[in-house]
Specification:
By secondary structure, the protein is mainly α. Helix content is 75%, strand content 3%. The chain folds into two domains: 1-150; 156-266, no CATH class. Helix 7 packs antiparallel against helix 8 (208-216).
């Protein structure tokens, strides 16, 4: 608990961004209850809710990782500037994305794959540029975890491995997002119009959003597993490998056009 509080205090950019987005999740949930409009048969506010929650968790994850980097950068001003710059740019880009997503929901139109008018196309392009910028700056933020040794970062090897693989999956999940954007769809196999409530994942087609989700949240799952199993290294490695295998399996079934619902029902 003490470490968590230290982490939340160490990076005002990502902490304020994270907490505010969790508050936005509550706001969007209230709007969902008050607004009966839908986009393509789905509640207007479901997408802002999902993005606000995901962004909030991601930003707070960066806050919790920041003390490690600040200790590493303590006597090097260039390193400190790198941590602060990347945190600021990531936060600003995430704010830009949620404002566009929320704004499109308020207008009653889709925020993603919507290029039907000049305005909507410009918004979608701006969102894509923001996410690309945020991903690049996340790479800058994460670079020391890949370039430095456990001793240099004062981390146990298992935890450093969890952080590294978590970021690897995060970037692979981001690539999946780019694939969806370039295809202007998230379905593989058919239109995938039958969906899991709220999450929206297809019940009939392969859904790239599942790959996107499993990858992006690897940065939470793998470090947490490493922390919880810090005294049971072999089990920690096994469970982390299992999650990585789960991600690879998700890519395989999605590419084959198989829905998660069909897989579960087999």
């Amino acid at each position: 608990m003490r470490y968590m509080l230290k982490g939340l205090r160490s990076n005002s950019w990502t902490t304020y961004t994270g907490v505010a987005h969790l508050a936005l999740f509550v706001l969007f949930a209230g709007l969902s209850l008050a607004d009966s409009r839908t986009v393509d048969g789905v509640d207007n506010w479901f997408k802002p809710m999902k993005f606000a929650l995901s962004i909030g968790v991601f930003a707070l994850t960066l806050s919790l990782l920041t003390p490690i980097l600040l200790e590493w950068a303590r006597e090097d001003k260039r390193r400190l500037r790198r941590v602060r710059l990347s945190s600021a740019v990531i936060s600003l880009m995430l704010w830009g994305e949620i404002l566009f997503i929320g704004g499109q929901a308020a207008r009653g139109v889709a925020s993603h794959f919507n290029i039907y008018t000049a305005l909507d196309g410009a918004i979608y392009s701006a969102m894509g540029l923001m996410i690309l910028t945020s991903t690049v700056m996340t790479g800058l933020f994460a670079a020391p975890f890949f370039l430095e040794s456990p001793d240099s970062l004062r981390l146990k090897p298992l935890l450093l491995s969890g952080i590294r693989w978590g970021f690897v999956l995060f970037f692979l999940g981001s690539i999946a997002g780019g694939v969806m954007s370039s295809m202007l769809t998230h379905s593989v196999g058919d239109a995938g119009l039958a969906r899991i409530p709220f999450l929206g994942w297809s019940l009939t087609a392969g859904d790239i959003r599942l790959v996107h989700f499993a990858g992006l949240h690897g940065i939470q799952v793998l470090p947490v597993l490493a922390l919880l199993l810090s005294t049971r290294v072999a089990l920690g490695r096994l469970l982390m490998a299992a999650y990585i295998g789960l991600f690879i399996g998700t890519v395989a079934i999605t590419t084959a056009g198989i829905s998660i619902a069909r897989l579960i029902s087999v």
